[in-house]
Design brief:
- There is one protein chain.
- By secondary structure, the protein is an alpha+beta fold.
- The chain contains 9 helices and 7 strands.
- Strands 6-5-4-3-7 form a 5-stranded antiparallel β-sheet. The protein has a two-stranded antiparallel ribbon with strand order 1-2.
- A hairpin with a 4-residue loop joins strand 4 (162-174) and strand 5.
Length: 240
């Protein structure tokens, strides 16, 4: 393995970890010695990479560090192309356009051979057999999640009963033929999953929810991990 490739792999490994990671862990991931990790981190810092930490404690890449697009491998470009085309085929028009624009921006700054790899990727996303029919504007939901604002929704359950809810939206789960809104429901005082095609009306409230989205996501994931049956219920809700 060339030194430049090794340094690039080290940067990628640091970016994958959101918390400080030890040199031992990095060495195991990269298949090199701990001494090599220390030496390569010193080299990256000298080159201007924003890495915090020290030997015996761990290292972390500061947010905002961007690598030039030409550093993408062909496998990474094929993954991006496949993901972008999946999104463009299976989401609402605004998100589909965003996916196409993102691929176009990447292609615009790639060298010729890699541009060809992006446009002529051998991995193909097949059209969905059961496209999702939106009953609400999903851009409202996505914007509310980003702004961490409450939503008021009118929801029809599987038995046809309609209720009005105030929820704290934290995520959208994209299945093949349905989308689920993950949210804390004030009416039920717990996390709930709402099928987007059963939401008949939605409005963003001028009120942020009292906890951070990050904290709510952590609590929801812990709940799903502690109660596998609920995760199964989530998948069943997507099928029903």
């Amino acid at each position: 393995m060339s030194r430049s490739v090794r340094l690039f792999d080290l940067i990628q490994a640091l970016r994958r970890h959101r918390r400080a990671v030890s040199a031992v862990t990095l060495a195991d991931e990269l298949g090199v010695s701990k001494r090599t990790v220390y030496r390569d981190i010193d080299t990256l810092i000298a080159l201007g990479a924003p890495i915090d930490g020290e030997a015996g404690i761990g290292y972390m890449m500061k947010p905002g560090f961007v690598l030039p697009p030409l550093m993408f491998t062909e496998d990474e470009l094929e993954a991006l192309a496949l993901g972008g085309r999946w999104v463009s085929q299976r989401t609402d028009p605004d998100l589909a356009v965003a996916a196409e624009n993102a691929l176009a921006k990447i292609a615009a700054v790639l060298p010729g051979p890699l541009t060809a790899a992006l446009h002529n990727a051998s991995l193909i996303s097949a059209p969905s057999r059961s496209p999702v029919e939106d009953t609400i504007d999903p851009t409202v939901v996505r914007a509310s999640i980003r702004r961490q604002c409450k939503l008021r929704i009118a929801y029809v359950d599987e038995n046809g009963r309609e209720t009005d809810r105030v929820v704290w939206p934290i995520a959208l789960i994209y299945y093949e033929s349905v989308r689920l809104l993950v949210a804390w429901c004030e009416k039920r005082d717990s996390f709930r999953h709402f099928r987007s095609d059963r939401i008949t009306d939605v409005a963003e409230l001028d009120e942020r929810y009292p906890k951070s989205r990050q904290a709510l996501m952590k609590a929801w994931r812990e709940q799903e991990a502690m109660h596998p049956g609920r995760a199964a219920d989530t998948r069943a809700a997507a099928r029903n």
